[in-house]
Amino acid sequence: MKFEEIFARHLAIRVKPTDSNEMLEAIDVLSLKMTGVRGEFEIRTPKTVSTIVPTDQADINALTELLSTGCATLSILSNSAKDGSAELHVLSFNGEQLEMGNLEIGIDDNALSVLKKESLDEAAKLLWGKSVFSHGGKKYFFMVAGSAADAYLE
Hints:
Blueprint: E1 9-17, E2 27-29, E3 31-34, E4 41-44, E5 49-54, H1 58-68, E6 72-78, E7 86-93, H2 109-115, H3 120-131, E8 132-135, E9 138-141, H4 150-153
């Protein structure tokens, strides 16, 4: 599953590190949060922790608003530039991120026929490829829950 295929609120802004000797590289962002200083944000990647600022002052409010909602987010850095800046892409999802642990998912004969697969292994591989998103060394899947799921369950 590609980052761009997921339905969520998307914010794309250019950011730069507060340390002028630092270069941002294209990489998954493991966490993104506000610092105690207005306009500065902390990102953690698999390689480093950095303090960043938007290159356009108008983006400070948009990023602050998005992070203050408390919704689950996934972020990446892309399109690194020679000046040390990079594009920060943030996807924001309604609701919070939940740790699910191990899940057992049942597939009945009807599901197998809809998927046009002959075995559970084939069906499982197809569903895994269409519903699991890898980011920062973790696996994610997205689900509709609560009253919003009623239409899918009927």
